Amino acid sequence: MRLRTPFIAAFTIALTALIIAYLASLRFPAEPTDYLWYDSLQQLGEIGRAKYRQSHRYGEYARRAERDSLHNVATLFRAMAYADNVQCNNCRKAIESLGGRFHTPVLLPSEREPTLTHLHSALSEKYELHNGPTTPCIHQALEDGNRYVARLITWCDASDIKQIVILQREIEQLEHNAPREYSVCPTCGAISDGGLHSCLCPHCLTESSEFILFK
Ligand SMILES: [Zn+2]
Asked: How far is 95 from 88, CA to CA, in rounded Å?
């Protein structure tokens, strides 16, 4: 009997430790590293996180531009925030459907700067993404035989290129404060300005009647 009591106590402690470890592993499961297209999904995660941060930041920039009575710039930042949010969600869905996990980044509050500084910051980070990880990610995905991921990143890049062109124009014409109108494809995040556009999105063939209008 004297022998049995410590044995039962040790058994109970070990069992409790095992249960705690099991519950902890359910809450924080280890990330799998052996799934197919691991490299492509890691890179897609990087782009998705950049899009997440940009989307939130442009929402803040839009509110700041509105306070500065720059409605045209606020409209642009709202359209960009929506486009980047669509693309972030596309990245997240692709990663999860292919067996990976999307890690939502922690957001730091951005500094309150004049609207012109916000336009320059947005322009330089769009250039950084376009000139940095985008093209190697597309090539990596194609090399892995994953055309789905390659297409998603190409959609991101096409929208970023268009945003670069619009941002450059807005920086040059800031003082004119001319009314602007943008439409964004809710499927791929393609952004177009002005009233003219094709009846279908040129990237994903979504009907233009479904585009979200910002004005
Ligand atoms: Zn589209």
From this structure: 11
What's the 189 CA to ligand 1 centre distance in angstroms?
Answer: 6
And the tokens for 9?
């106590």
Q: Pairing mode, if any, of strands 182-184 and 191-193?
A: antiparallel
Instruction: Establish if 187 belongs to a structural domain.
Output: no
- Cα–Cα distances in angstroms (integers) from residue 12 to residues 6, 23, 65, in the given order: 10, 16, 63
Q: Can you read off the two tokens belonging to residue 159?
A: 């929208």
Residue 203 lies in a domain: no
Q: Residue 41 in contact with residue 180, Cβ under 8 Å? A: no
CATH number, domain containing residue 147: 1.20.1260.10
Total domains present in the chain: 1
Q: Is pTM beyond 0.90 here?
A: no
Distance 113 CA to ligand 1 centre (A): 32
* Spacing, Cα 190 to ligand 1 middle (Å): 5
What gap in Å lies between CA 56 and CA 48, rounded to an integer? Answer: 13
Q: What is the pLDDT of residues 156-208, one digit of tens each?
A: 999 999 999 999 999 998 877 778 899 999 999 999 987 677 899 999 999 99
Which pLDDT belongs to residue 21?
59
